[in-house]
Structures are given as structure tokens and as C-alpha cells.
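Chains adopt folds. We examine one example:
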Amino acid sequence: MVSHRRERVSVFKVLTRRQRTRLIAGAAALILAGTAGIVSRGFYSEPEAQAKTQVTSYSATQMQGLEVSRDSVRKAINEGQGGSSTGTAYVKVIINGKSKLILGDNFTTVKSVLDAGDITLEPDDTVAPGLNTKVTESTVIQISRSNSEIQSSESEIPFNTIEEKTDSLPAGTTKVKTEGKAGVMETTSLITKVGGKNSSSNIFASYVKNAPVNKVILIGTGKVQATTSSSSAATTTAVSVSSTSTTPVGTAQSIAHSQVVARGWSESDFTCLVQLWNRESGWSTTAANPSGAYGIPQALPGSKMASAGSDWATNAATQITWGLGYIAGGYTSPCGAWSHSESTGWY
């Protein structure tokens, strides 16, 4: 993910293991009277902001039990994590007890925050403070919606198969180094009911609960030396891995592979990209962290991807184009970004 972060509150589960401190906000408080008229189009941590895990870095995974401070979030933004800029502001919104951070520029009133977060009120909703109240980063907006409940569901993130060439094995032989295991994507939605039936479902957050473990197969390239008379044991050359290749899984990865090759990067770079975005977003175009990071590359805020296309909120090709540009500009290559993520927990 591209780095991001937010306020002190106990978190609601978010992002990747590698993210040691993630910004999320989560406390609930009483809901004062408010104003009327809003409906919730999609509680994606506003398409323009979604975050990752870690107090100073975001990623679509692991945030359970973590707490972060406003200073942590501001520090992450000032560092430019996830493509954010120092002009980016954030405001915490609590909807039926669940928190998320809305990121954007030029916030003035409560209404401007809700607009930026693509949050609309329904006739029976209450919001506090009122829509015309001026906001700062210390403002907490609370929305209460009747006949609604928060529901969570899990879906599988497929693992990839990575082939590593190594001269530690004789040419023509293979060995399974690591068995693959599917990951888990957790999606939390606000379900509104009418007459006892679900009338609408809006995604509140969707993040990598457990990143997939890729299957790794060693491909032998070494030469076996002839057996000597004093020993029946064959010897091989020293262990080394020369390169890797990964088979794309799904449409998004196929698009990414084509773009990686077009940029002149190697198959090993594609392997690094797969590992990075498996952990950041599970390659989901709608991966949304309550604290702000969004999409396959976990841009912060997500609206930054509009520079690659107006369909940035749902189009994999657009998100990948932006994400690879971000990686090229900040880390030279996907393996550079992966190395940074491995050492710091964010990219």
C-alpha cells in the first residue's frame, strides 16, 4: 500500500501484518440531534482516502487491536505515504458506531466532509454536529441510521505460484519450497432494512485480513558433478537464486503483468508486485481501509488515482497504471517498493 495513517482509537480490524501501526479510528459516542436528508451511497472510506496498517504506514491488512494518535496520522501524511501530500486533511466519521477517516482538501463544513466521502443522508438519519458546522481535524462527525446494522463477510484471496530458479538443485529437477495458502478478505457493510428485508448494502470497509501465502517451487539450474571413487555422494554448486517468475491469477494481475513488461521491468519485478499488492489489497479494486487507503495500490487518498482516469474507483487498469507510476517515481521498480515495504511495513 501506499503509506497512510490516522487517529487514536481502538481499531476495527484493518490491514496487513507488516503494518505495525495503522490509523484507524474507532470509538463510538452519543449521537446528537442533527439534520436531515442524507443517504449513504457507498461507505468506501471515501473513494478518496483509505488507509493501511501501521502508525506511519498503511496497507490493506492487519490493524486488529491497534491504536493510533492524530499525530501519527498527520506524520504519515506529511511523509507523503501512499501518495498523500501535506495539504491533505482528514476528519473522522462514525456511522452507527463504526469509524472511518475521510481525507481530502479544502474541508470547510460537515457537509463538505460528507460530500468528499460520498456519504449521503437518508430522511431518518441524524448527524452531529450540523451540516453547516465548520470542521477541523479534531472534529468527529457522528451519523445514526435506524433500521440498519453492520455486517461482516469474508472472501478468499487466491495465492500465486512462484517459480524460483536456483543452482542449488540439478538442472531438470524441481522442489516445492513453500506450499500455497489462500488469504482472507474481510468486507464490512452497512445493511439497511425495509419491512424486515435488506433494501441496500453499502461497503464500509474491505481489507486484507490475512494475506495469501504463495506457493514457491524451486527450479533446478545447477550442474551435478561426477561422483568420485571416494564418495558416492554427488555434489552441486553453491545455493543461489537467479530469477523468479509468477503466473498471473485473475484479470487484474494479467493487466499488471502486461504493464510491467511494457515498462521494461523483469519477471522478478512482477513477482515483487504480486507479493506487494497481495498484502496491500488482495488485488481488489474496491479495497477500502477505514482510515483512508483505497484500491489495488492503496492510494491515499484514492482520488489521487483520478490522474490516471476518471474511472479510478472501479477500473483495475486505471488503478494499476497509477500504482506503477507511483512505484516508478518513488522506488524505481516493484522490487524496490517490495524491499521498502518489507523493511518498513509500508511503501
